[in-house]
User: Fold this.
Amino acid sequence: MDNDSKLRPLYLAKILYEQTDEEHYLTTVQLINILEEKYGISAHRQTIKSEIALLRKFGLEIQEIKSVQNRYNICSRDFENSELKLLIDAVESAKFITAGKSKELVAKLSSLAGNFGAEKLKRNVCCEGRIKSDNERIYIIVDAINEAINADKKISFPYFQYNIKKEHQLKHNGNPYVLSPLHLVWNGDFYYLVGVTEDNTIRNFRVDRIAKCPTILEEDSIQAPEDFNIDYYINTTFRMFNAEHTDVELLCDNDVIDSIIDRFGENIEITEAATENFKITVNVATSHIFYSWIFGFGGKVRILGPDAVREEYVSMLDKVRESASAS
Assistant:
């Protein structure tokens, strides 16, 4: 009986949290019946009243509507439904979260709204057939990386790519990479690890391509260069493709200004070149991903320099043209 009296307010809070909200109430009699039928704990009217007062003193926002049958409900939660909807959309849309884990996380998020609120959280986001990662270890991997970042320690890990048989094939001749982890970044629907390599180069790795949980080493991490800015790195490394960063001058038509600001941010320095266009100089990773981004503007963004970058872009276009002609 002593244990029942200790557990009763906890179960009472659970019942109210799950079965009431701003529009749904439970009466004193209903609460007494649920406690008895579901948890085998007896209560009477005065017990319910006093323990709800205790829960309110604890901090739960429980509303009491006085009448012949007093009614109670939870009138405030940690998350609004609109906030939970945003979180659910993010979980369901994220490609790095496996399909099974997405369902599990969505169920947990929905439970925060109570039984009635969960129905309102059913979303219409079109991601049911979306390609999802199959790396179920990703959550353990992320925890290990976070632990290493917080401890300022290096990590080592094997990293894979797919072969044409869709098998995992280890890169780096099967040897583990050693990295001083700096940041975890969610970019373009994938999770990336950004860090410093043993030769003091900033590199990034797809977390879902890390073959097994990283080993946290005893060695202290190499510090990032003083001028390293993670936001700038993300904005100038197209689709997080590892490549050398170079200052590139671009000539852009005025009508692409929104896309330029979306890509590089409002702090980008713009020089007016003529009535119909402007110039910018950006430090970017000059890979084929960057060149494909340039090509996507259909000539409205041109590379002015340096010559080596412009020539590499033209060479890539020539190869594409030759390939198309050959087919």
